[in-house]
Amino acid sequence: MRGSLFRKKGIEDMLASVSKGNTLKKELGTFDLTMLGIGAIIGTGIFVLTGTGATTAGPGLIVSFIIAGLACLFAALAYAEFASTVPISGSAYTYTYATMGELLAFIIGWDLILEYLLAVSSVSVGWSGYFQSFLKGIGLELPVGLTAAPGAVKGATTYFNLPAFLIVMLITILLYVGVKASKRVNNIMVIVKVAVVLFFVVMAFTYVKPDNWTPFLPFGFNGVFAAAAIVFFAFIGFDAVASAAEETKNPKKNLPRGIVLSLLICTLLYVVVTGIMTGVVPFAQFEGVTNPVSSVLEVAGQNWAAAIIDIGAILGMTTVMLVMLYGQTRVMFAMSRDGLVPSILSKVHPKHGTPYISTWFFGITAALLGGFVPLDELASLVNIGTLSAFVLISIAVIVLRYTRPDLPRAFRCPAVPVIPALAVVFCVFLIYNLGSVTFIRFLIWLVIGLIVYFLYGRKHSKLNEY
């Protein structure tokens, strides 16, 4: 067992470990967790990817969002069962460790690093674009060299994306101070950005022309499926709620509620906004548009309202980065505590009760990536890492039902094994639609991870002590 690649960490041992010193403060309730999920989900997806998806699927983008949302809902039910049963930091990594062994757990943890880190960096670049647009609106402009990463803008010499770097560093400071301060800021920004989305619905609804929904599927179901694989990025983040397990006051009840509620609310908003967007503006006109939601109001002649949407986009992307970086540090905290990565990454600050070294390390890394690297093509790479995690979690629920039927479960995923199996089918289908280039990049990342595991993680694993 000691040298096995598939050695498992006992669930009872995991639960016992959280009471021994290296633990996090419990600050979160159902409302906070729901806000955390909405904060992570509503951002780049609704303010940017709706335009990209519309040119791929046309008005049928509504169906694309429903397909991606179903894939996430099925996986969310599996997450909810695990989160209420094993309320420990680490999300999919921790659950896989308990059911399918150390090697697969490390691979999932490595996937989550890819998801969270690149998501923070890529969203910071989108945030920078909206922020610069806002500055221009009030008569201010940054030097061109500080507006984008090297080579990111054709016909211009750029050196560094200063706004992208600074916003990630500000979020890092906030997370370093503590989850209590972070949740307050997140809750306020989430309420504001949801209000902005509802404001868009009210303002744009009267400009809908039903003729723009015809043809509903201009590119057939192939376009719908391709768009679903793209807009899946819009749902990434609900799994970060599971990462907050150790900081939740009543995880057995609050975690399932927070995960499912945040996902259902966001799916509804996506479908409504997409329907209105493609009803006001013909889908072909979204080609190359980086601010599709506000551009709809500009077409309707409501420029003042479009400016409000831009502010909502800035807030929306800020909360996405906040929750993603939060999830990143908590997964790394769990992996470090298990010995699979250096132990320094699980040190908890004596005053703030946060994994401060991990927070600074990944915050600075994400900020530098956003500042120096053009990441506009990496959404697919983020998606494949997340979808892989969803597949394994769904399988893990089935495995645990049969290997540990005696385990107390505050929330039970319904219709096992049917629901988890549907999650696997939907997620594998979306992976298939991502393309070969994404597979190659993903395999390179996995190879690097396996090297780290065999050279460091396997040797330093805490399971070697048993």
TrEMBL record:
Molecular function terms, GO-annotated: amino acid transmembrane transporter activity
Segments passing through the bilayer: 30-49, 61-82, 103-127, 159-178, 190-207, 219-238, 259-284, 304-327, 356-375, 381-402, 414-432, 438-456
Entry keywords, A to Z: Membrane, Transmembrane, Transmembrane helix, Transport
Coiled coil: none
Membrane topology recorded in Swiss-Prot or TrEMBL: Multi-pass membrane protein
PANTHER family named among the record's database cross-references: CATIONIC AMINO ACID TRANSPORTER 4 (PTHR43243:SF4), INNER MEMBRANE TRANSPORTER YGJI-RELATED (PTHR43243)
Protein name per its UniProtKB record: Amino acid permease
Provenance organism: Bacillus gobiensis
Organism ancestry: Bacteria, Bacillati, Bacillota, Bacilli, Bacillales
